[in-house]
Every structure is written in C-alpha cells, then in structure tokens.
Amino acid sequence: MSAIEALRAVVAVYSTHPTAPLTLLSRMASLEPAAYRDLEQQRQAVRIVGMRGSAFLVPTDFAAALFSATRSSTDRLQGRLTYANLDFETYERLVPAVLECCSTPLTPSELRACLPVADDVYMVARILARQGRIIRVGASLRTDQLRYVATTAWLGQPLTEIDRQDALVWLAEAYVRAFGPIRVADFAWWSGSPRRAAALALERVNTVSRDGLLLLAEDAAEFDRVERVDTDRIDVLPKWDSYIMGYAPDGRQRFIEDRYLKLAYTSVAGSPGATAGDGLPLVLRGGQAVASWSHRLTGNQLVISVRPFADDPRLDESAFAAIGALLGTATLAVTTASPDPELPAR
To answer: Is 346 within the bounds of a domain?
Structure first.
C-alpha cells in the first residue's frame, strides 16, 4: 500500500506532526520520509480545516467535498477577528496583500517580513486557511513547521464550492467505507455534524445493517467473511490516530475496554472522569488496546516510554523501530513502566 492509498483508506488524518506520518506508517509495510513529503510536494494531498474545526491532511481530490461538508458558518468570522485584534475593514484590506505574498509558501516570519504592517498578517493567513483560501504545507516530519501558500497558487485553482448537503452525503459514504460498521452517533461525532444532519446523510448512502450497525452494501459480502485479527499482532498508533478518533466516545469498546478509557484519552475540562478528549498514543495487541506510549527525541535517539494497562503486555520493542527510521533517528531506547496501580479491577 502506498502513502496516498493509506491516506484514502482513512479519508483524512490529523495534520499535526508526527501524528500524520505515523498514522500512515501504522497502515503500511514501510514508509520512507521522501514518500511522505511527496504527498504534499506532488499535490497528492493537502492540509485543510475539516472535521470539528481541526486541521487534516486529505487527498487533494477529496478536499473540496470534505471542506464543503465540514466548514463552519461565516458567522464565526467576527469571533476570529476579535481574537486576532483585527476589525473587519482592516482584515478585508489585508486579504489581497496576504494572498499575493503567499504566492509561494512562506513561514510565519517570512510572511510578516513580506508585509511589514502594524497588524498581524500571520493571523490573517490563519483565518484565510480556515476559509480554504490558504493551504499550510509541512516540512519536518518530527514537528509542525508550516508554511502558508494561497490555495490557487498551490493547486492552480480554488477549492470548488459544493452544496453542503451533497458534500455531507459524500463524506458519510467515505466514512462508512473507512470505518464501518458504524452508528449514526459515530458519524455525527467524527464529522462534527448535528445528529439529525448525520442521520439524513446516511439515509442517502446505500448501507446494510449488521447487529444494528451500518456498513456499505457493497462491502457486506467481504465483511461477512472477515476473520479475527491475529491475537499476537502488534499495532503502534500515534496520538489522534484515525482509528482512535474514528468513533464516538461511547462506541470505542471495539478496541478498548471501558475500564481503560481514562488511560487512552485525555479528560474533558470540567468533567471529571469524562474521556471524550484527545486520543493518546496506543499499542494494540490483537486489535485491543493494551498500553499507551509516549516519545521524546534526545539528540539522534528516539526514546519511547510504554505504560501497559495490565501486568502482561507482551510487547516487542522492535514494533517501534519503524517509527525511529521514519523520524530519522539513529538509535532507539524503549522503557516500560508499571501499570497504573489505581486501575479498576475487571
């Protein structure tokens, strides 16, 4: 499977680095840094604002429909201008100049140097990115080092405007193909759509039911022949991985036991015990989450810290070797902590 095929298989990946390259790596036999960079440099994929207002890396030919299905209403513009300490008239005056500066990819510092005015032109570029008029292009695989470029300059044309309802139907079908079988609640959560809008979109998709869950009718025969994942198979998923973030908070039992949820997701501010937040990096064994992990870069060494959910994780340190290779490190060190002593009993 190529990098673009892996990306298509999950519709989109969170664009933060190293999440984006590691998400694709986990679905491929191997991934070279150059092959990942080619996704953007060869215009196979672009970074746009998508589901729930987050930034995603998506196949270029998906971008218009995905953006149209998920874009926020224009009434939020005033709030963003207030946050940026800009008034509407100033913003409108700066937009043409910012777009002209971004005829080639610029870092925030380069953009400010291109248009040295008192107002923060970088904030204008960020707002334009949320409107689909500017695209952000990555550099380092390890961290976010983004450059800003006008969409028409990078792609040769603006993102096509598609009817929002039609676009949401397209997104619903793409989601079911990638994540099915699913519930309406799962698509609503993943897409950031109101429950009713999600349900109406799914009604226009040719699906069948399996135990109350929906999958594409065209996938039903293959789904019915599927075999259980090898119980010894290890998968290493990064923070915000598509699988971790693909289902509503109350629908994640397919890959993690409820008692482990607090170890796999960040808590929600003001809601003790709620785990609808960010998905943490996870290790799956046989398709089930058995540990979380974190990493840091020390010189040219990748240091991995693993925290098992139980006493017998049976983890192979070599599972992390591909991550080190993709991130360009020379050596790998893996440490394993003891399970959380406060973990609830089964």
So the answer is: no
